[in-house]
User: Fold this.
Amino acid sequence: MRILVTGGAGFIGSHLCEYLIKKGNQITVIDDFSTGTIENISHLLENPNFNLVRDTVLNENIMHLLIEQCDRIYHLAAAVGVKLIIEKPVHTISTNIAGTERVLEIAHKFNRKIIIMSSSEVYGKNTAVPFNEDDDRLMGATKYSRWSYACSKAIDEFLGIAYHRQYALPVIIVRLFNTVGPRQVGHYGMVIPRFVKQALKGEPITVYGDGTQTRCFTYVGDVIRALVNLMDTPQALGNVFNIGANEEISIYDLAVKIKDKTNSSSQIQKIPYDKAYEKGFDDMMRRVPDISKIHKIIGYNPTYSLDQILDSVIDYTKKNMQA
Ligand code: UDP
Assistant:
């Protein structure tokens, strides 16, 4: 099968390409390297079944060519990471909305099957966990850039569903819940790679807010298997699925766990949200997925516990810090 992965040089995209190549597919990646890196895919570059295009999904001519030549599309290209979103709000909104619009338009032209990555951010500040795909969404005020990401992803979902309803385009939408694993970096805000690096360097572990906010972390390998299974499941078309794990932990407890696992001498330092992000920053206090829908359709269950995830990230980070 010929597969196009937009954003394939990113953390999740690179794991997806690796998996799909092992299964004997031909992969083309389009990535503008805004957050992706060549290191993420350097081990794939020599593979004759791997093709890299360094460009943006907004380039209509290139996308035309690439979509015409593929059978299926995984659309991962997006601006991600809370820090990046706050620092570059215009880039976030236009990349996420115009990018997805372009990809869908051309996918429709050639009738290509497509999975669109959305995010658990779309649930917003709702605290009625676990979040079911059909739950209401609760967004903060537009003066807080953070919510532009959630809204841009919600627009992507609306667009995908609209193309499915109006033109019968084979579209699947997934909402990812804090995907983590090797190769994820902390520059754009992601908490686990940041805490692990801080702990290994003996620097303060920076807990934002009072640390009572919770998350559920999902191992990237579990996400990849779910994406590929959904792509192969005709009943998934036109649907939205949560992909996540349900082991909930507070960010403060996460800091303690990482400090213990790394035998670190780091202090755990609480930093007010205003200082960490922007004035009046609104966090999501809890984020737990209801995964019954995806379990029912493809038998999905996360296989990595939080301890296993942390061990793999710590191991990876140690090796890379030495290199
Ligand atoms: N966080 C933190 N310290 C950091 C980075 C993040 O306490 O150095 C917190 C962040 O405020 C949020 C949680 O960790 O409550 C998860 O953050 P991340 O950016 O990884 O993902 P989010 O779930 O916010 O999209």
Residues 2-181+220-245+288-302 form a domain with the Rossmann fold fold (CATH 3.40.50.720). Residues 82, 178, 189-191, 194, 206-208, 213, 215, 251, 283 surround uridine-5'-diphosphate (CB under 6 Å). The chain has twelve helices and 13 strands. The first strand starts at residue 2 and ends at 6.
